[in-house]
Amino acid sequence: QFAPENTKMAFERAVMYDNVIGVESDVTISWDGIPFIAHDKNLIRTTNIQDIFPNRTKTYTSDFNISELKQLDAGSWFLKRDPFGTVHRLNESDKTAIRNQKIPTLKEVLDILEDADQSFMFDILFSGSENHPYRETYRQKIVDVILESGIEHKRIWWLYYHNTYPNGTSNFTAVQSGSPPIEHLLANGVFITNMR
To answer: What's the half-sphere exposure (Cβ side, CA atoms, 13 Å) at 142?
Structure first.
């Protein structure tokens, strides 16, 4: 409530709360193969894309390279729209920090979580064009970044949607969204559900 979604500031603040055991977010991949944190199919709602790339406002999130994504302001929208009615409680230092937020890479978020000894529940949301160079391999690229990080594998909570996992995910914790039959969960080795 006190930081823009899917920014380093949001993750840093979330892990400061007592009784927090982890955070949840969505991961996608850039045109140049860098996994990063984003939820929407385009960048209109949570960045200043219309100011930086006015001809690309409807471009898929994954169709930008990481240097382009890092040019975007991922925080000022929060101050303008005040989605939780909390901006009046922020001091000027907080507001300045919010204005300086960028779209974080997966590695940046994993570093925050590893330092805080927290878990990461994630979903992979690919929103790229048909000719995206990582269209067939994005899941494995994302898993490779996780495996290269220092975070314990049991702290990675993978939202289970697919019958196959990329290589190296056997020690991740499988999480099912929704409420499928218990037989389905047990048959797929899923012991945690993410209820909405």
So the answer is: 27
HEC per residue, 75-119: CHHHHHHCCCCCHHHCCHHHHHHHHCCCCCEHHHHHHHHHHHCCE
Q: 122 by DSSP, 3-state: which?
A: strand
47-85: per-residue pLDDT in tens?
Answer: 999 999 999 999 999 999 999 999 999 999 999 999 999
Rounded Cα distance, 39 and 123, in Å: 9
Are 174 and 191 spatial neighbours (Cβ–Cβ below 8 Å)?
Answer: yes
Supply the Cα-derived Rg of the chain in whole angstroms: 17
The per-residue pLDDT for range 2-47, each reduced to its tens digit, is: 899 999 999 999 999 888 888 999 999 999 999 999 999 999 999 9
pTM (2 d.p.):
0.89
How far apart are the C-alpha atoms of 21 and 177, rounded to whole Å? 18
HSE of 69, CA atoms in CB hemisphere, 13 A: 26
